[in-house]
Amino acid sequence: MEPKYVSLEMRDYITGMGAETLNWCMQCGLCTNLCPWRLVPGEISEKFNIRHMQRLGQMGMEGFEDEQVLFACSTCSMCQTNCPRGVKIVDNVRGMRSSIVGAGMAPANLRPILGSAHAQGNPWSGPREKRTDWQQGLDVPQFDGDKEYFLFVCCHSCYDQRSTKVAKSITRLLQRAGVSFGVIGAEESCCGESMRKLGDEELFQKLAQSNIKLFNDKGVKKIITTSPHCLWTFQNEYPELGGEWEVIHYTQLLEQLLEDGKLSFPESLGKRVAFHDPCYLGRHSGIYEAPRKLLAAVPGAETLELTRCREMSLCCAGGGGRIWAEVPMGERFGELRISDAVGKGAEILTTSCPYCLNMLTDACNSMDKQEVLEINELSEILAASLA
Ligand code: SF4
Ligand code: SF4
Questions:
Q1: Which of 170, 215, 227, 301 could cross-link 269 (Cys pair, CB 3.0–4.6 Å)?
Q2: Which atom of ligand 1 is nearest to the CA of 50?
Q3: How close is the Cα of 31 to the center of ligand 1, in Å?
Q4: CA 280 to chain centre
């Protein structure tokens, strides 16, 4: 239902919380047609319309009644690519969510997530001291001011058992190439990217300030991120808070090392592989070639492209805090990716983001396709191809 009254005070609040382009929207609706919610059936799909949401914000949230809809956007940025007014739709969504979360009305399913990030510095309910458990059995160097790079491992790859393999593979690749790097460990906090997208500005500021002080005190100059979400927030949101470093995604660094002849992948894969472009690596950060060049360097990796790829890649649905959402089977974006990959004859669907890995694996398992399609992270393919 379209709202009828405008709350000017609330509209100003939302604008001040990041929705600076809210009033540029002229309600043409071009954004709505590009949204992946148009590709799946179900209750959320029927209710969620990003054009309506822009209008809701313009009206100062008058008429707001469904938190499920407000928190449905995965911040994939697809809709923004087609807006004739250049509306920063994702920032507007963030501003709107702030008006709800900032008033202490975060959806019930998100409260433990936000609470864990407040108390433990990560959203996965993991004790702070266990942040380094993934390193067991490995000789991971500690960062000191003399190391060239600080390796920032995403919380997901510190605490989620499956995802720890990503941190281990990246470590192995960096060590093989002789990169000077180190980790800090238990003092690190979540980058806060998802927390900010969920509208918890206070929590984001707390996490960011804690990291900025820690990294600067330790003498960090260059950061390698394992996740495109950490990459994006360090590059785009930390500088104005005092965190200014050279930040690079691991695929970018490995591509450089490959070109410099410091890394090679002699072991043959012998499989057909499709690459899923993560939204925060691709559309948000413009990195499309690095993962493809790395994959092309693996002998026996027969690469193929998904129908929606690169700038038009289809979101896995894990961004914007959606990784913590329960979505019924048959309504998940990831299922479209699995169908596409299987239909094209891929034997492996790989990606380079821990959230995508999680969402695609869930979709593959729920569709019972794990016998025909392996889901993995690019670093795992690369590490397995080292001699
Ligand atoms: S495409 Fe842009 S101007 Fe058109 S409805 Fe969407 S946000 Fe508004
Ligand atoms: S950012 Fe993605 S999920 Fe959100 S409204 Fe735009 S297209 Fe839909």
A1: 301
A2: 6
A3: 6
A4: 5
Its pTM stands at: 0.96
**Amino acid letter, 386:** L
Q: Which atom of ligand 2 is nearest to the CA of 50?
A: 5
List the residue whose alpha carbon is closest to atom 2 of ligand 2. Answer: 76
One-letter identity of residue 175? Q
Q: Which atom of ligand 2 is nearest to the CA of 34?
A: 7
Residue 35 lies in a domain: yes
For residue 45, report the distance from its CA to the centre of ligand 2, in Å: 12
Q: Are residues 234 and 120 in the same domain?
A: yes
- Is residue 271 in some structural domain? yes
**Does ligand 1 come within 6 angstroms of the Cβ of 26?**
yes
Query: Is the pLDDT confidence value at 279 over 60?
Result: yes
Alpha carbon distance 306, 319 (integer Å): 20
Nearest CA residue ID for atom 2, ligand 1: 83
Nearest to 67 by CA among 79, 80, 56: 56
User: Which pLDDT score is estimated for 7?
Assistant: 85
Tally of domains within the chain: 3
Q: What is the rounded CA–CA span in Å between residue 160 and residue 163?
A: 5
Q: Is residue 211 part of a domain?
A: yes
Q: Are residues 249 and 132 in the same domain?
A: yes
Same domain, 195 and 277: no
Q: 170 phi and psi, to 5 degrees?
A: -65, -40
Res. 137 pLDDT band, cuts 50 70 90: very high
pLDDT at 254: 98
Which atom of ligand 1 is nearest the CA belonging to 92? 7
Shared-domain flag, residues 196 and 277? no
- The predicted-structure confidence for 182-236, as pLDDT tens digits, reads as follows 999 999 999 999 999 999 999 999 999 999 999 999 999 999 999 999 999 999 9
